Amino acid sequence: MVTPLAVVNLGLNTTQAKGVQRWLKASWGYTGGIDGELGPESWKAFQRHLKAYHGYTGAIDGVVGGGTVSALQRFLKNNGWGYTGAIDGQAGPGTQAAFKTFANWCVANV
Prior knowledge:
By secondary structure, the chain is mainly α. The chain is 53% helix and 0% strand. It is globular.
């Protein structure tokens, strides 16, 4: 039996996730396919970005845990993507809405 890789799109649709993957490929060493599914390889690339600029201190393991989400929230808050909530490591509606704003920018610009 083959176990599928964990896909964590945090509310993004396929088009939005593909935009994020193009951004990750352009700048953060993502080498996977542009398939619209944010799996472990996408998140490893995002974790490299979050470690470099947004206080992520965990392993580059592709697991979307509280540390990854907290760093993502800092990224979304500090870079004008519309996140105004607490840095709490919970990918709630505010986090997802801001992530969509960033993803839409990626679709239009990357």
